[in-house]
Amino acid sequence: MKPISEAWSRTIDSWTKIVTAGVIFFGAIIALVQYLDHKEEQTAIQRIESTKPLLEQRLAVYMEATTVVSTIATSTDKIEVEKAKERFWVLYHGPIRAIGDFQVMASMQQFGNCFQNSACKSLPELSDRFADSVAASLSSDWRPKPPSSLSAGFN
């Protein structure tokens, strides 16, 4: 076997270094593209995860309020209805105001105005409307929302 000349050895070494640098460069480009492709999705998931305790609390309060409203609208047990009315006002003046959205608050207010008026006959309808507003609020809470702009902080 004939030994390799020093010039040929340097050529092979130089090409090996160039190919290695090219592979590293293109690997970095591919990693950057994948990172940018998934950044919006990850931001939306992080938003839900960071608000999860509030959303779980909102769900619990909404479920209790829906139960209270439906009890007032449909129960024939006067004692149960009185307890539900007391709980309604606690929820209305406290937790719902703290974590409820505008539509839920408005439908809860309509329901409260109706059951205070003894002539009002639409409690079941208003109870349904309240449950619908709660469902709409909850469905928008758990749906990922993409950020309005990832570059908002760099302007």
What does this structure look like?
The protein has 155 residues and is an all-alpha fold. The protein has a domain of 90 residues. 80% of the residues lie in helices and 0% in strands. The chain is built from five helices and no strands. Helix 1 packs across helix 2 and helix 1 packs antiparallel against helix 5. The C terminus is likely disordered.
What is the approximate shape?
A: rod-shaped
- Rg estimate, integer Å: 31 Å
Q: What is the strand tally?
A: 0
Major beta sheet summary: none
Strand proportion, as a percent range, falls in under 5%
**Structural class of the helices, strands and pairings?**
mainly alpha
Between the first and last Cα atoms, what is the distance in angstroms?
Answer: 66 Å
Q: pLDDT under 50 segments (min length 5)?
A: 150-155
Task: State the helicity in percent bands.
Answer: over 70%
Order of helices and strands: HHHHH
Number of helices: 5
Mean pLDDT: 86
Oligomer: single chain
Q: Keywords for this structure?
A:
155 residues, mainly alpha, 5 helices, disordered C terminus, single chain
In short:
The protein is mainly alpha-helical and 155 residues long. Helices cover 80% and strands 0% of the residues.
Task: Explain the layout of strands and helices.
Elements: H1 6-74, H2 78-93, H3 95-99, H4 102-116, H5 123-141
Helix pairs in contact: 1-2, 1-5, 4-5
